[in-house]
Amino acid sequence: MAVGRRLFLHSGAGGRLRHRGCGAVLIPPIERIAQTGSTNADLLARLAAGEHVGEGHWLVADRQTAGRGRLGRAWGDGLGNFMGSTVVQLRAGDPLAATLALVAGVALAKTIRALAPAIDFQLKWPNDVLADGAKCSGILLERSGDSVVIGVGVNLVSAPDLPDRATASLADKGAVVERDRFADALAVAMADALWTWRQEGVESIVRAWLPLGHPVGTPLHVSEQALDGYFDGLAPDGALRLRRADGGGMLVHAGDVELRRPVEEGT
């Protein structure tokens, strides 16, 4: 089924219709604001106050003053970058909420591929996008009751300086992508990936993620557990398969993963 058709039939959001080659596409509602501390924090506050935030609703800010990533890391804002959050309302029978990081990753990758096809990028488990090894996007999941707020930051025009990792923007790689166009495309891709997650299961998302991710055999370090090994694919439930140097394997369900460069012979 075509993406646009799927969204039209299965999205309950009161979005806008836009036409493209495959027909009408329903764009989920996007609320744009000039400045805030954090779009994730704003949506979490609304939910905590009892406000109904419909699934698929996006809150997108021109500037953020208190953006953050995983493990409480600060994430600098930049005018022209994408900074937005959306809500998923968990239902009975849904896959594990943590696997929404993979859903968002697939949606992000499809959006970047569509709008910046010349960029060489890959997904890093569980929630980053790398361009030539430098972080250009991140995903943050936070839960409030039966709602999950998914925050997405994408360096479209500028990248923050981080002390512990290389960063890059799409503009650094030669791609000019307008923020609102990116927002519309991501909202559609996210709704489509969410439909797949619910209707076809996590296994379908895993199959979509694997060709976009770091190759099997990539050296990895899992910070929290101080584990080293090699990427050996994903389990059907989305967990990372880590192959140890002794040939044994283990599953990693959560953690901050660093990609290590292979040691070149003679160095």
Task: List key phrases describing it.
globular, alpha+beta, 14 strands, seven-stranded mixed sheet, disordered N terminus, 267 residues, five-stranded antiparallel sheet, disordered C terminus
What do you see in this structure?
Helix content is 24%, strand content 31%. The strands form three sheets. Strands 3-4-5-9-8-7-6 form a seven-stranded mixed beta sheet, with helices on both faces. The radius of gyration is 18 Å and the shape is globular. It is built from five helices and 14 strands. The chain is α+β, with helices and mostly antiparallel strands and 267 residues long.
What layout of secondary structure does this protein have?
Blueprint: H1 3-10, E1 16-20, E2 23-27, E3 30-36, H2 39-48, E4 58-64, E5 82-89, H3 100-115, E6 121-124, E7 128-131, E8 134-144, E9 147-154, H4 179-200, H5 202-209, E10 219-222, E11 227-234, E12 240-243, E13 249-252, E14 257-259
Parallel strand pairs: 3-4
Antiparallel strand pairs: 1-2, 4-5, 5-9, 6-7, 7-8, 8-9, 10-11, 10-14, 11-12, 12-13
What proportion strand? Answer: 25-35%
Number of helices: 5
Helix content: 10-25%
* SSE class: alpha+beta
Task: Characterize the overall form.
Answer: globular
Evaluate the radius of gyration.
Answer: 18 Å
Characterize the main sheet.
7 strands, mixed
Low-confidence stretches: 1-14, 17-23, 262-267
**Number of beta strands:** 14
Enumerate the strands of the largest sheet in spatial order, edge to edge or round the barrel. 3-4-5-9-8-7-6
What average pLDDT do the residues reach? Answer: 86
SSE ordering: HEEEHEEHEEEEHHEEEEE
- N-end to C-end Cα span: 51 Å
